[in-house]
Design brief:
The structure holds two protein chains of two kinds.
Chain A (H helix, E strand, L loop, with lengths): L3 E2 L4 E5 L4 E7 L6 E7 L6 E7 L4 E4 L2 E6 L4 E6 L8 E8 L6 E3 L3 E6 L1
Parallel strand pairs in A: 2-11
Antiparallel strand pairs in A: 1-3, 3-8, 4-5, 4-9, 6-7, 7-8, 9-10, 9-11
Chain B lengths: L3 E3 L3 E4 L5 E3 L1 E3 L5 E8 L3 E8 L6 E2 L6 E7 L2 E6 L8 E9 L2 E4 L3 E5 L1
Classes of the chains: A mainly beta, B mainly beta.
């Protein structure tokens, strides 16, 4: 059973606009959440993370929001750039970080 | 910077062959993982290891085995490759703050 879900397989956004990628999880024991970016034929690279004690974390153009009561997190990219076009994976881990549970990914296309 | 290195970027193997995928990390991480990525299925965990000589099954261990003889090295073994094991294989190592991935191995079984 998928514990981390990304219900949108793809998203297209105009350059300069905001991209919002969504992720839902089912396990209330998850303590730490991460977003990864993946280009074709490469491994995922870490983008941004958030601890369960926070509801927002910002790093440059990237902001992650966490709504624990809804078991939902989102990644906002603003402004979107063509180089942001990639597959984005949401992941969650427990307090010890011994395992990471990944969503199925959302393919973002930023149109110039 | 953490470096996770997978021995091959691309591999083509025949059905029935025994296949070894090697992964080395340089940050003294305790935890290492093997995932496979398939379209529409995301990253699925095959095996992981918390320490040398320790291994745990992930979600899809069938047809695979692993070896962790040294802390920095985690090997994935396909005992008898089959066409449904054609996939992108990703190795990762981790500490609490996140998992770091290798560049991936695109394996094609013909």
């Amino acid at each position: 059973d998928q514990q981390v879900k990304q219900n949108s397989p793809s998203l297209s956004v105009q350059e300069g606009r905001i991209s919002i990628l969504n992720c839902d999880y089912t396990n209330s024991m998850f303590d730490y959440f991460l977003w990864y970016k993946k280009y074709p034929a490469e491994g995922p690279t870490f983008l941004i993370s958030i601890s369960s004690i926070k509801d927002k974390n910002e790093d440059g153009r990237f902001t992650v929001f966490l709504n624990k009561s809804a078991k939902h997190l989102s990644l906002h990219i603003v402004p979107s750039q063509p180089g942001d076009s990639a597959v984005y994976f949401c992941a969650a881990s427990d307090r010890m970080g011994n395992q990471f549970y990944f969503g199925t990914g959302t393919s973002l296309t930023v149109i110039p | 910077d953490v470096k996770v290195t997978q021995s091959s970027r691309y591999l083509v193997k025949r059905t029935g062959e025994k296949v070894f995928l090697e992964c080395v990390q340089d940050m003294d991480h305790e935890n290492m993982f093997w995932y496979r990525q398939d379209p529409g299925l995301g990253l699925r965990l095959i095996y992981f290891s918390y320490d040398v000589k320790m291994k745990e099954k992930g979600d899809i261990p069938e047809g695979y085995s692993v070896s962790r003889e040294k802390k920095e090295r985690f090997s994935l073994i396909l005992e008898s490759a089959s066409t449904n094991q054609t996939s992108m294989y990703l190795c990762a190592s981790s500490f609490y703050l996140g998992a770091f991935f290798g560049q991936g191995t695109r394996l094609t079984v013909v």
